[in-house]
UniProtKB/TrEMBL annotation:
GO terms for molecular function: dynein intermediate chain binding; dynein light intermediate chain binding. Signal peptide: none annotated. This is DYH5 protein. Residues 5-167 form the Dynein heavy chain tail domain. It holds the Pfam family DHC_N1. It comes from Psilopogon haemacephalus (coppersmith barbet). The gene is Dnah5_3. GO terms for cellular component: axonemal dynein complex. It comes from the Eukaryota. GO terms for biological process: microtubule-based movement. Coiled coil: none annotated.
Amino acid sequence: TEVTEKLEEVVTIWIKQIRQVLVESEQMRREADDLGPSAELEHWKTRMSTFNSLLDEIKSSRVKKIISILQAARSKTLKQWKELDSNVTLAANEAKDNVRYLYTLDTFFCPLAKASPVTMMEHVPSLMNTICMIYCTSPYYNTSERMTSLLLKITNQMIKTCKTYLCDG
């Protein structure tokens, strides 16, 4: 029982830490007004890295041993642990999926940033078709908030490129 209590304390601390990571990941992002679409991809890559690292730690042999000891002791903290494990797995899957879909837009980021307005406009129909495909097929990225954020960043990049073209051209 003494060992079980110590292990429950450790798991309770882990639960608090993991909850903190989950809460922070769900908070509203504060971003500069002129960010381009590459920032969206970078955000999801960072999030994917965070949750994959967390999953690796959760799946480590050390953690599994502690959890199996608590299972044998029928600990009540396991219910919270399993719920958090599930939430972390879901967040990791979401980030991985979003990175995969946003990578399909990566080929458009360079023309949006470096091309002339005329050349840029040649890429817009394909870009919009790809965004439509993401919206229709992605299980996670097809919300109005995510699409609005992405389209805003694309528009920001187009405006920035046009300003640069007009001022430097």
